[in-house]
Write a structure and sequence with these properties.
This protein is of the alpha+beta class. It folds into two domains: 45 residues, no CATH class; 245 residues, Sulfite Oxidase, Chain A, domain 2. The protein is built from ten helices and 14 strands. The strands form two sheets. Strands 1, 2, 5, 6, 9, 10, 11, 13 and 14 form a nine-stranded mixed sheet that branches. It has a five-stranded mixed sheet with strand order 4-3-12-7-8. A hairpin with a 4-residue loop joins β5 and β6.
Length: 333
């Protein structure tokens, strides 16, 4: 059954997404490449409407075949203004408003993404051209930060696994490594360790191959129907909804398929606090705070922020828990 898109500011759980489910809006963008080109000349690429026209009327939403665990009747979207102003992107500073303030000069076009390593067909793609060729869809996902706050965000993107298949991974590919743009001239946190939180740049992240190929894992090129703002990882970033937000590497320029587990930035900086897997787990606390609950950033002011229980795998356990069935999740945190 097709469900028309309800108003974005008052979405109920039944209208948007069950606890472990997501809603998608799939639409191949015909002619988008030319539209992007004209907008680039006008300098407005970051505000491009990825669905065109009036998205709420033009493209109905269709629930995908993921079964909810427990309906949560009060789930609503985080307002767009908060999603684009409350960010962690240490390349532009460690304060929550620093990325929005310091990233607006980031040059996101042209932008290429290289895929290499254990693949039969290594290559480099133009990300803006890719947006016009690949079928984009909207995924409304929970996002849980390791700092114990959360949001509900409508991402626009495509499945990472389907994208990687274009490059024919070999049988030796057991992990997928990601790398952010390294450009100290544009990113003050890369020039100055104090501004950048002491991270060893470029920022790197990684997934196991089965995690990367899982249909919930996406590469996002937009949110709220528009292309990503720089502070949210323009023009392309990773979104893995059952993991803590720092796994969602931003402004990606390189993907490598590897036989060995790759290093990851936060694990290198503080291995006792940030493991490779980073699955949301309310029973495994951060060494400096509890992970049993979280502050949901939704509509309203400071006093409207609600504290709610943290769900195992961020509510996606039914879909992904089997990936870790034989693992000690306290050891592999």
């Amino acid at each position: 059954m097709l469900i028309k898109s309800p108003p974005r500011h008052q979405l109920s759980e039944q209208q948007v997404t069950p606890e472990s489910a997501y809603v998608s809006r799939r639409r191949v963008i015909s002619g988008l490449g030319a539209g992007i080109g004209s907008l680039l000349l006008a300098g407005n690429a970051r505000a491009l409407d990825l669905f065109g026209g009036e998205p709420d009327k033009a493209a109905p939403r269709k629930p995908l075949a993921f079964t909810p665990q427990k309906p949560a009747p009060d789930l609503v979207l985080t307002p767009q203004a908060k999603v684009i102003s409350h960010n962690n992107f240490y390349e532009f500073g460690t304060g929550k408003t620093d990325p929005a303030e310091n990233s607006q000069g980031l040059k996101t076009e042209p932008w290429t993404l290289t895929v290499e390593g254990e693949v039969e067909k290594p290559g480099t793609v133009d990300v803006w051209k890719l947006m016009g060729e690949i079928g984009l869809e909207e995924r409304i996902y929970r996002m849980r930060c390791v700092e114990a706050w959360s949001m509900n965000i409508p991402w626009v993107g495509f499945e990472l696994g389907k994208f990687l298949k274009r490059f024919a991974p070999t049988s030796r590919a057991r992990y997928v490594a990601f790398e952010t743009l390294y450009d100290p001239q544009q990113m003050p946190g890369q020039r100055n360790r104090y501004i950048g939180g002491g991270v060893d740049y470029p920022y790197v992240e990684g997934l196991r191959i089965d995690e990367a190929m899982h249909p919930l894992t996406i590469l996002s090129v937009g949110l709220y129907g528009k292309t990503l703002p720089p502070q949210n990882g323009a023009p392309i970033r990773l979104v893995v909804p059952w993991k803590y937000g720092f796994k969602g590497i931003k402004s990606i320029v390189k993907i490598r398929l590897l036989e060995q587990m790759p290093p990851t930035s936060w694990n290198k900086l503080a291995p006792q606090e940030y493991g490779f897997y980073a699955n949301v787990n309310p029973k495994v606390d951060h060494p400096r705070w509890s992970q049993a609950s979280e502050r949901f950033i939704g509509p309203g002011g400071l006093f409207a922020v609600k504290r709610q229980p943290t769900l195992p795998f961020n509510g996606y356990a039914e879909e992904v828990a089997s990936l870790y069935s034989n693992m000690d999740l306290r050891k592999f945190y």
